[in-house]
Amino acid sequence: MKLHYLILTTILPFLLPACSKDDEPGEGRGRSMAIEFDTPFIEMTSRSESGQDIPFSEFKVYGFVNKADSYIYDGDIVSRQPDGSWVCDRTEYWYPGKLYFFTGIVPVNSKGLNFIPTKKNNATLTGGGTFHYDIGISQAKEDLLYAFSGTMKTPVATPTYMPEVEMKFKHLLSRLTLTFHNDLVNPHYFVNAHSIMLCNISAKGTINMTQPKPSWQREGTESAWIGIDPLYIIKQTEPSQTTPVYLLPLPVDESWMEIRIQVFYTADPNSTQGYPVTDEQLIKVPFPKINPEAGRSYNLVCHLTPDNVLGDSEKLVPISFTVHDETWRWHEDFNVEVP
């Protein structure tokens, strides 16, 4: 009997089927493969669409399975890794016979932004929820990007393969810059725009991305006064452009700009030091006629001449801006209807 026992124990390992790591509990039994994210990109941007050049390194993700109120991701963070892959800070899995969809948002910690995930879930769902945004809190310094994966259905059998989740981001705001040309003729004159203020801008808006044609709607009657970074040493050699601000795509018919302008003289046109030629003047400029659209970029251009910045302030010709649509992004399937 002992001899038979010894022989059995000797050959038993060869009779048992080999076990791989994938057969370990929790790795391949009772649940499917982990959800992975593809490199995101920005829809129809004129900037490079390569993963290393997109203007963010992380996004917030909301994910749902089977029913929309069954969250698998609830504002978790997907970030770019040193090797270029994009990994969520929480691992979730594909389960058989389920319907999934995912929403991405950039930036991950935007001031004044509130996103409410939808409670709906069906195969024709076109968006993941509703935004409420107050640009007065962020002072319009942040862009807002949004992605929706569409619905992804897993097979009834345990999936052996599912594609990476593709996040195609869209810009939801209007981008605005101001450009100043120094046309004072004398190269010894330069101009400082000590302050630039956008006045009576719509402060709060909402947009429901689950609608077939999402459109921004104004919330309440509050207005925002948005300060743009000042411009100094505006010379004749090249125009000066402000840093961009990002506005709600809502009417600006009752808005205006207030700009504090002062002209300086310098003996050396290459110097940044000078003496004031004029007092600081507060110039009120009507906002140019724009029909703002999400995902479009507007550059407001003005020319500073002796007629509008030199001499008696009561006799100056008003400064005016022309609108240049310099859109660096365009949406082929996202049309915003301005109320």
Structural features, described:
- With 339 residues, the chain is mostly beta strands.
- It folds into 2 domains: 26-171; 174-325, Immunoglobulin-like (Sandwich).
- It has helices at residues 2-15, 135-138, 306-309; strands at residues 41-42, 58-65, 67-80, 86-88, 99-106, 113-117, 129-134, 145-153, 168-171, 174-182, 189-202, 204-208, 217-218, 223-228, 231-234, 240-241, 245-247, 256-265, 275-276, 281-286, 297-304, 322-325.
- The strands form 4 sheets. The chain has a 7-stranded mixed beta sheet with strand order 1-9-8-5-2-3-4, with no helix packed on it. Strands 11, 14, 15, 18, 19 and 20 form a 6-stranded antiparallel beta sheet that branches. Strands 10, 16, 17, 21 and 22 form a 5-stranded mixed beta sheet that branches.
- The longest helix is centred in the N-terminal third of the chain and has 14 residues, at 2-15.
- The model is unreliable at 1-31, 46-52 and 329-339 (pLDDT under 50).
Tally of individual helices: 3
**Which residues form runs of ≥5 with pLDDT under 50?**
1-31, 46-52, 329-339
What structural class should be given to the helix and strand makeup?
mainly beta
Topology pattern, helix = H, strand = E: HEEEEEEEHEEEEEEEEEEEEEEHE
| Count of domains | 2
- Chain-averaged pLDDT: 83
C-alpha end-to-end distance: 92 Å
What percent of residues are in strands? 35-45%
Strand order of the largest sheet: 1-9-8-5-2-3-4
In this structure, how is the largest beta sheet organized? 7 strands, mixed
CATH architecture tag of the largest domain: Sandwich
CATH class of the largest domain: Mainly Beta
Total beta-strand segments: 22
Principal-axes shape call: elongated
Radius of gyration, CA atoms, in whole angstroms: 29 Å
Overall helicity: under 10%
CATH topology of the largest domain: Immunoglobulin-like
